Amino acid sequence: MAFEFRGAGALDYYPCRYGTSRLMFRGPRRRLEGDYVAALGGSATYGRFVARPYPALLERALGLTVINFGCMNAGVDVFAHDDAVLDACRGARAVVVQITGAQNLSNRFYAVHPRRNDRFVRGTAALAALYPEVDFTEFNFNRHMLQTLRARAPDRFEAVVAELKSVWVERMAALIGAVARPVLLLWLADHAPGDAARAGLADAEPLFVDADMLARLQPLVAGVQVVVPSPAAQARGTTDMIFLETEASAAAALPGPLAHSEVAQALAPRLRQILLPPDPTGPCRL
After folding, report:
1. CATH: 1.20.910.10, 3.40.50.1110, 3.40.50.1970, 3.30.160.100. Which one for 3-119+168-275?
2. What strands lie across the sheet with 183-188, from one edge to the other?
3. Pairing status of strand 36-41 against strand 94-98
4. CA 280 → CA 94, 181, 194, 277, distances in Å?
């Protein structure tokens, strides 16, 4: 059964900060020293409503500290503009980056909140010119705004989607380059990257990201791990998740404990390969 607590603090995330970062991460706070793996991502990596998210399970499997830098509703911009997080990633042996949607980043059509990337801040002159009939002061969230634009004029909306896809690839490439460590991308969704029928839906995650976009990043990373939770994991819904009664709909949109277990099982062998020390008996190139 799902655990529905009516009291505050039903699940203690031990929120913490690292260095000069203004972002709140899931704790307990860890020391940024020695050997560790950094896990970047959005609400799924943070592990909202889950007692032991995949970074914690991965730590047990690897026998190596895994620091959870998951951030609620994060997009690429959250991490790309946070020097403290980037510095922590540069000290890691490897970095896992959960692939988040393309809607939550600033672009030539609109700006998002620098820390709460799902929040719509303002539209640009280019967006006003594309949709002169829309009052953009009515929107607080990117997804709501994008759904409205697509319903209003699907043909014009394609220009917005093309911009988001292009900027997403550029920002991801910049983030990977700034980390300067082996990066393993994690695709965690209820559909595969090549499922075009699902990739463009407004309620799909990661929104607008497709196989072609991942292919452009492939030469820059150590690998891409695709995890589509099993039918058993998806069927369990919010079972074993911990949430308030008012948070049931939010919990239903996130992976549960079984899905997190499947993610850790998929990532562990890939990371072991990345973390292997160079073979001293290997061929010597002069």
Report:
1. 3.40.50.1110
2. 65-70, 36-41, 94-98, 183-188, 223-227
3. parallel
4. 21, 21, 39, 9
Contact 209, 199 (CB under 8 A): yes
The token duo for 286 is 């002069």
Residue range 162-184, pLDDT digits in tens: 999 999 999 999 999 999 999 99
Beta-strand pair 242-243/120-123: unpaired
Q: Is-above-0.85 flag for pTM?
A: yes
Nearest to 177 by CA among 98, 90, 77, 102: 90
User: Position 49: which residue type?
Assistant: F
With vertex at residue 192, the alpha carbon angle to CA 44 and CA 231, rounded to the nearest 5 degrees, is 70
Q: Where are the beta strands (DSSP E) in 115-270?
A: 120-123, 183-188, 223-227, 242-243
CA distance 262 to 233: 9
CB atoms under 10 Å from CB of 274, counted, come to 18
pLDDT tens profile 22-73 = 999 999 999 999 999 999 999 999 999 999 999 999 999 999 999 999 999 8
DSSP per position, 121-160: EEE-HHHHHH-TT--GGG-SBHHHHHHHHHHH-HHHHHHH
Distance, CA of 237 to CA of 250 (rounded, Å) = 11
Distance CA 157, CA 150 (A): 5
CA–CA distance, 108 with 127 (Å, rounded to integer): 8
Domain ranges of the chain: 3-119+168-275
Name the pairing type of β-strands 94-98 and 110-112: unpaired
